[in-house]
Write a structure and sequence with these properties.
The protein is α/β, with parallel strands linked by helices. The chain has four domains: 2-139, 2-Layer Sandwich (N Utilization Substance Protein A, Chain:P, domain 4); 144-209, OB fold (Dihydrolipoamide Acetyltransferase, E2P), CATH 2.40.50; 212-287, GMP Synthetase, Chain A, domain 3, CATH 3.30.300; 291-376, GMP Synthetase, Chain A, domain 3 (2-Layer Sandwich), CATH 3.30.300. Helices cover 39% and strands 29% of the residues. It has twelve helices and 15 strands. It has helices at 2-25, 29-48, 89-95, 115-142, 213-223, 225-228, 258-263, 268-276, 291-298, 332-336, 341-350, 359-374; strands at 57-61, 68-77, 86-88, 104-109, 149-157, 161-166, 169-174, 189-200, 203-209, 232-240, 244-251, 281-286, 306-313, 319-327, 353-358. The strands form four sheets. It has a five-stranded mixed β-barrel. Strands 1, 2, 3 and 4 form a four-stranded mixed sheet that branches. A hairpin with a 2-residue loop joins β8 and β9 (203-209). α2 runs antiparallel to α4 (115-142) and α5 crosses α8 (268-276). The protein is elongated and about 120 Å long.
């Protein structure tokens, strides 16, 4: 009596464990039940495949009691020639009075035959099925979120990765997608750009980024209603993660100021994004279909005197966009930026190779050209 009670408690425990595991991993209980049934069958095949054909073996777990049934389908024949896959009509009739010759019937297999080796194999198969189910769930949950924003909580980090919990799934932030100097302390909540879903260390893992240029774009979509509604469009973004970004915007509605919408009242909207990016500076640029006007705007905060554009076709057929920019002498350093950052970001934003000169340099060059053009060459035959 005590042994029977213990067996019943173990079966109930199996159901409880399955329910808990399904809840913890975010997997449908029925999917997990099927995975375990497949695992049990795989264990039998590994244990007995060398001695008998068990391709017709199946397993079933009672969804209420947790009791495990293992059985095989065998053919009902008049004379048994293959005991592993056949049963006599007389024996089958004793099991099911309505059975007919040529039918198939389920024959139970003693679960105790599973043995320790088979149990280990079942555990391995179950783990694999759980991983597959978890991977399918993550793929389903995140397939539509690639290149979108996800909020995650930092769990831990090592020399290569920061590990983040996102919606009951583990995400990894590779070193190349980490902002240099950014603090990834345990428990910190941050926003990430979802790059892909793939296997990592045998587990389905989401790869995320903090450095991708689209993170800035998506943060503006979240923060600025006019962008989400389509009234304001982000035309282009250039970024040096953790330092500075430039965002070119355009309004479809003449009554809406694109730059003003992105900056927000008292700069609140852009400040929220800068805070999320750890203080990264952001320049909001008015996009223009006039290349010269766009380039001039992209070089802010510097003032620009003039912009001349040209288009050069390379030997390989590639067309290079070039812009010769003139700025006041006192604006040159500002236009170039520290270590060339401002002009570099402006070039990426506009798609033009930008060459900046000061007004005095241009004036001097013009004067020199004029002198060279009108310089009188002394005639050697002329008498002194």
């Amino acid at each position: 009596m005590a042994k029977k009670k213990q067996e019943e408690e173990q079966k109930e425990s199996v159901i409880a464990v399955i329910k808990e595991l399904a809840k913890e991993r975010g997997i449908d209980e029925e999917v997990l039940m099927k995975a375990i049934e497949d695992g049990i069958v795989a264990a039998f095949r590994r244990e007995f495949s060398s001695s008998k054909n068990i391709d017709n073996v199946f397993a079933e777990i009672d969804r209420e009691t947790g009791e495990i049934f293992v059985y095989k389908l065998v053919d009902v024949v008049e004379e048994v020639l293959d005991p592993d896959n056949e049963i006599s009509f007389t024996d089958a009739k004793a099991m099911d009075d309505e059975i007919e010759l040529g039918d198939q019937i389920e024959v139970g297999i003693d679960v105790d035959e599973l043995g320790r080796l088979a149990a280990t194999a079942a555990k391995s198969a179950i783990s694999q099925k759980v991983r597959e189910a978890e991977y399918a769930r993550i793929q389903s949950d995140f397939s539509d979120r690639i290149n979108e924003i996800a909020t995650g909580v930092v769990q831990r980090k090592d020399s290569r990765y920061v590990y983040v919990d996102i919606a009951r799934a583990e995400a990894v932030l590779p070193r190349e997608h980490q902002i240099k100097g950014e603090n990834y302390e345990h428990g910190k909540t941050m926003k990430f750009l979802v790059l892909n879903v793939q296997e990592y260390n045998g587990r389905p893992t989401i790869t995320v980024s903090r450095t991708h240029v689209d993170l800035v774009r998506k943060l503006f979509e979240l923060e600025v209603p006019e962008i989400k509604s389509g009234e304001v469009i982000i035309k282009s973004v250039s970024r040096e993660p953790g330092s500075r970004s430039k965002v070119a915007v355009y309004s479809r509605d003449e009554n809406i100021d694109a730059k003003g919408a992105c900056v927000g009242q008292r700069g609140q909207r852009v400040q929220e994004i800068m805070n999320e990016l750890g203080g990264e500076k952001i320049d909001i640029i008015d996009w223009s279909e006039d290349d010269a006007a766009f380039i001039s705007e992209a070089l802010q905060p510097a003032d620009v005197t003039s912009v001349t554009t040209s288009f050069v076709t390379k030997e390989n057929g590639h067309v290079e966009n070039r812009a010769d920019v003139v700025v006041p002498d006192n604006q040159y350093s500002l236009a170039i930026g520290r270590a060339g950052q401002n002009v570099r970001l402006a070039a990426r934003l506009t798609g033009f190779k930008i060459d900046i000169k000061t007004e005095s340099a241009v004036s001097e060059a013009d004067s020199r050209a004029m002198i060279d053009e009108f310089e009188v060459v002394e005639d050697p035959n002329e008498e002194a």
